[in-house]
Specification:
The structure is a homodimer of 336-residue chains.
Chain A (H helix, E strand, L loop, with lengths): L7 H8 L3 H9 L6 H14 L5 H7 L4 E6 L7 H12 L5 E6 L4 H13 L4 E5 L5 H10 L2 E4 L9 E5 L1 H15 L4 E6 L9 H15 L6 E4 L3 H12 L7 E4 L2 H13 L9 E3 L16 E3 L2 H17 L6 E4 L2 E3 L10
Parallel strand pairs in A: 1-2, 1-3, 3-4, 4-5, 5-11, 6-7, 6-8, 8-9
Antiparallel strand pairs in A: 10-12
The structure holds a DNA duplex (30 and 30 nucleotides).
Chain lengths: 336, 336
DNA sequence: GGTATTGTGTAGAACGTTCTCCATTGTTAG
DNA sequence: CTAACAATGGAGAACGTTCTACACAATACC
């Protein structure tokens, strides 16, 4: 019950001091003697006092950071969360997640809700909205955006270096002797730019060019079905590719199914690589070569930037996290 | 900026009424004329007023519900969230998720944090703590517990009927002609009881007994490796089972790998079934027969119970959600 | 025509903090 | 010895709501 809650006044009474003094001790503010510190701390422990966040919010901080999730099914979202909470574990901050859904409207509603609850700062994961809207939010509260390339005027950003990730895959495949390497990407109906799949496709093109090879991009969708359809089309060609690089693991799984059905053995007849290194990629039965984003580092970095910005920093920062290639059983030299 | 925030006083000034009147309109309280309603609503729209949740919290509701997640990697947790938010989509309530981690200590800290932020009610997903602790929390704030069988004195509960789910699998396998059906469960070092895997194992035993068959339970762990090891042991026996029912899909994937390595074809030589119906179970390349919990319904039910309890109800309710069997390619008649 | 009753609006005290002064010490400098 | 100053503690006004109590008017009842 709220009525039974221990308040700062209870502590003050117990310790025989003013509420202002207790507040100072709680906040670690300047102007507290060692004796006062001891008295108050003891009273707090005895009563089991915990500051009431809502009351705090009316004047100062809430020590609450919000993470807006665009898609709870995103396979590496748990890693990001772990990175964030891990980084914040020994601080006073608490993390709350807001399921924003995939629609711009619901995401905006969630962000408003978080601001209304006076969170001290926001981490937005792959938010779908215009840069202008983002900037407007960022002027109202400290913001770190994760997973959007490009414009970071009023806010900080953490991105995976998708160009590099795509390059790692191409380099790996070329190193194995492949020359006909196709890429399956996601078809987006306009809207936001700087989205990961676009950047991955661009990275793929750049890397192919660097090796003097012709690129071959097919846009379907980042679903198992999308990977399947894309692969079926690619494998039906006369000079079918010897390797397919899917821009997402889930699509790569579809590619594997298409290979199965076409009677092609992996990796002898066809090498397959994905992106994201989702959990099941490591299952021995799948063993998919993939690019790992290290959500841990991404989350931890986002948390660090946000706290920095809340507490001091004013100019904005963009941090790029380098992915790593995890080579597994689905890639190998092409059969000659 | 907080300083730039539109407050109830701004609205009152604009509409030429008192703040109390505006408050009534906002809350939809009794005692407001149509004219007042219109004036205030217009002022709210013009100014873009949104109530400040923290200020509200000091007196009344925050219209915030907290969902404590024990494990963000839990495969059907996104479904539960969707169920919860879907149910609450057209109400005033907002849902925030609290990553509690798997340790009792971190979970307790998260729950405290949610209470400190004066959430109106809490949904706890598979909380790891004693019934006494749970009861203590439930007296402080309305609580709905998801995924724990048994004791529901001070709080409401939503559970999957795991006994029924296990029965569905056994019935299905027996119907196909299997008689030697083994079950792989999770080995827990004491602690909480009424956990899903225990109940599933019990449901399996009951069902086998009902069919007059001997049960055969092996406890490893609910991991890919656990499923693999368990299956290897089971398949090495003289009278090896013709079907293995793993208590979780992730373990079933390990069983499939063991079958591969033993050169057994599925389902001809070995039928495999899992539980949870995780996303990849439906991939054609896996096509795992599994029990689906319908996280949607579980989440929606939890949300409904919580709101009911916040707004009126006092006696506690336990709701059991019936699972369904999804038959796919990994189960079939045993080879004679 | 007086008394209930109902409907509508407002005043103002909470709610639990933070934080800006201000008061009181004790210490140091001259 | 006094003025200046640092260190410490406290008073009390915010912060933006809700909600109880009350005022007033209009209507209904006898």
């Amino acid at each position: 019950m709220t009525s039974g809650r221990v308040t700062i006044a209870d502590v003050a009474r117990r310790a025989g001091v003013s509420t202002a003094a207790v507040s100072k001790v709680v906040r670690g503010a300047y102007g507290v003697s060692a004796e006062m510190q001891a008295k108050v701390t003891q009273a707090i422990d005895e009563l089991g006092y915990r500051p009431h966040a809502a009351a705090r919010a009316l004047r100062g901080r809430t020590y609450t950071l919000g993470v807006m999730l665009s898609d709870t099914r995103n396979p590496f979202f748990p890693d990001i969360i772990e990175g964030v909470t891990g980084r914040l574990g020994d601080t006073e901050y608490q993390v709350l997640l807001g399921p924003g859904g995939i629609e711009p409207k619901t995401q905006a509603r969630m962000i408003d809700a978080m601001i209304d609850r006076s969170m001290d700062g926001l981490i937005l994961i792959s938010p779908v909205m215009t840069d202008a809207e983002l900037a407007a939010i960022a002027t109202a509260t400290p913001v770190v955006v994760v997973g959007r390339h490009g414009g970071a005027a009023a806010y900080d950003a953490v991105v995976d270096d998708d160009v590099m990730g795509a390059g790692l895959v191409v380099d790996h495949l070329v190193g194995l002797g492949h020359t006909r390497i196709a890429h399956i990407t996601h078809l987006e109906r306009a809207r936001a730019q700087g989205l990961p799949h676009t950047v991955r496709a661009e990275g793929y093109r750049q890397a192919m060019r660097a090796h003097g090879l012709a690129d071959d991009v097919l846009a379907t969708s980042f679903t198992e079905e999308g990977g399947f359809e894309g692969a079926r089309e690619l494998l039906a060609r006369d000079d079918r590719p010897t390797a397919i690089f899917a821009g997402a693991d889930i699509a790569a799984l579809g590619v594997l199914r298409a290979a199965d059905e076409a009677g092609l053995s992996v990796p002898e007849d066809l090498s397959v690589a994905g992106y994201d290194n989702i959990g099941i990629a490591s299952l021995k039965r799948i063993s998919l070569t993939s690019v790992d984003q290290d959500g841990h580092v991404i989350g931890a970095t986002a948390a660090r930037l946000l706290v920095e910005r809340i507490e001091e920093r004013t100019r904005s920062v963009t941090s790029s996290v380098s992915p790593t290639l995890i080579v597994r059983g689905t890639t190998g030299p092409p059969r000659l």
